[in-house]
């Protein structure tokens, strides 16, 4: 069964304290892994797409990496404004169409 | 680029009424649109997938007669919650993409409260 698991469920960091979020997946027919940021009461905001193992993408303090079984979202020297829920989604073929399978998210809180 | 507009952002209505939510892709053509439901502190649950000009495909357990989806153009999809009841109260989010390998872009959601 296709599955996406994110860890940790919640993470509290001091400002400037770097860390990594994990997204593990077991999916057949992978067509991309996507990272999103979601603020309370808002829709997810697109961050990165990764398609193949070894691929890396960077944006400001965020860096996403991908292996054949998992993806990491590295946050370097986070700031309070990085506080949000980070979602990963794996796109796979299901019932004849390509859909996202979402992880349950990591709620990140960065303290000043 | 890749902006998806969803409205209304919140709606309160009485039990038994129908509510329509609109989802528009503002700067790209959305061949596929998706409708999700999200409960507090939970991830997004896919309700249905719609391709422009075709009938929507509903996920298992989603009542197609209660949640009517129309995707009549490449920039607009609507979700109508018919005869809404308090248990339909939730946060509904739409997304859109133009091609399979492109990311889905999400609207800002609609908070629906049924009294």
Question: In a few lines, what is going on in this structure?
Answer:
By secondary structure, chain A is mostly beta strands. Chain A contains no helices and eleven strands. Chain A has one domain (3-94): Immunoglobulin-like, CATH 2.60.40.10.
Describe the structure.
The complex is a heterodimer of chains A (112) and B (115). Chain A has 112 residues and is mostly beta strands. Chain A is 0% helix and 63% strand. Chain A has a single domain (3-94), classed as Immunoglobulin-like (Sandwich), CATH 2.60.40. In chain A, strands 2, 4, 5, 9, 10 and 11 form a 6-stranded mixed β-sheet that branches. In chain A, strands 1-3-8-7-6 form a 5-stranded antiparallel β-sheet, with no helix packed on it. The radius of gyration of chain A is 14 Å and the shape is globular. Chain A starts with a strand and ends with a strand. Chain B has no helices and 11 strands. In chain B, the strands form 2 sheets. In chain B, strands 2, 4, 5, 6, 9, 10 and 11 form a 7-stranded mixed β-sheet that branches. The model of chain B has no long low-confidence stretch (mean pLDDT 94). The A-B interface holds A 31-32, 34, 36, 41-46, 49, 51, 87, 89, 91, 95, 97-100, 102-105, 107 and B 2, 4, 6, 32, 34, 41-44, 46, 49, 57, 91, 93, 95, 100-109, 111.
Notable features of this structure?
heterodimer, A: 112 residues, mainly beta, Immunoglobulin-like, 6-stranded mixed sheet, 5-stranded antiparallel sheet, globular, B: 115 residues, 7-stranded mixed sheet, 4-stranded antiparallel sheet
Order of helices and strands of chain A: EEEEEEEEEEE
Structural category of chain A is mainly beta
- Coarse shape of chain A: globular
Query: Which oligomeric form is depicted?
Result: heterodimer
Strand percent estimate of chain B: over 45%
Q: How many strands in all of chain A?
A: 11
Largest interface, chains and sizes: A-B, 25 and 26 residues
* Distance separating the two termini of chain B: 37 Å
How many independent structural domains of chain A?
1
**Which spans of chain A of ≥5 residues are poorly predicted at pLDDT below 50?**
none
CATH fold category name of chain A: Immunoglobulin-like
Report the portion of residues of chain A in β strands: over 45%
- Secondary structure class of chain B reads mainly beta
Mean pLDDT of chain A: 94
Could you tell me the number of beta strands of chain B? 11
Number of helices of chain A: 0
